[in-house]
Amino acid sequence: MRVLFVSSTRIGDAVLSTGLLDHLLRHHPEARFTVACGPVAEGVFARMPRRDETIVLRKRALSLHWLDLWRRVAPHRWDLVVDLRGSGLAWTLRARRRAVMRGGRRAGHRIGHIAETLGVTPPPAPVAWTAPADEARAEAILGAPRPFLALGPTANWSGKVWPADRFVALARRLTEGAGSLRGAPVVLLGGPGSSEREAAAPVAAALAATPGGLIDLVGQLSLPEAAAVLGRAALFVGNDSGLMHLSAATGAPTLGLFGPTPASEYAPVGRAARAVVAGDGSMAGLTVGEVIEAAQALLPQRVAA
């Protein structure tokens, strides 16, 4: 069985689509997969089982990237084509079955929209695939197993970024004094690029002397390596971002911070994930106290460091 799976250009949406892929993997153990996605999302699928190929869709003028993709996949006969981009590609290919996600904004969480494409209920939860090399890298970075607080202070839009001083205050209240993660190190994560580094720099500088230590990994990890690190966290707190969704997919306790973006559509999905939403719709309106209260709901009363 050959499956073509057209996923997202963005990391967050790509992570949310892994639940549907995992469903197909479990229900069709004979299937082989070709995944098409945007460049930044490629790492989401790098360790996926039974993946023959990832086709990276690099945007071109006049939507010529779709023609590039068609040229790659048209020579083959597919048993199933799943298109989460809502394009017309599936209808131009030789396929036994086609499933195209309806476009446009609508009520409900994105994971439900994805699952509806194949009529799967309830929506399957996202997964995070890693390899032994990724786990080994995480172990080498983190050392002996111990609880730590992971922070994701960056995002792809400044309007989604919680102020740096509040991330600092949050970390200190959780890891110092009587905090639930007293004595735990803080691990800082973010993607590559100068904008991510600039957003994380004030947090890194302020927490450099934190009692449990700071491990600054911004821009230093592949997505599978980041998943391996996040899967070991006692708690992840971060802005609405692909990193937030990846953390939730690992099963780590994950708290997503939301202001102007809709948590009803993009809250993190995982066995220990929740969103905290600013009442006034702005990240500046989200207080440290509100985030601490939400974090405590995801943590035992005391986690020994």
From TrEMBL:
InterPro entries: Glyco_trans_9 (IPR002201), LPS_LOS_Heptosyltrfase (IPR051199). It comes from the Bacteria. The lineage of its organism: Bacteria, Pseudomonadati, Pseudomonadota, Alphaproteobacteria, Acetobacterales. It comes from Roseomonas elaeocarpi. Keywords: Glycosyltransferase, Transferase. This is Glycosyltransferase family 9 protein. Pfam families: Glyco_transf_9. Transmembrane segments: none annotated.
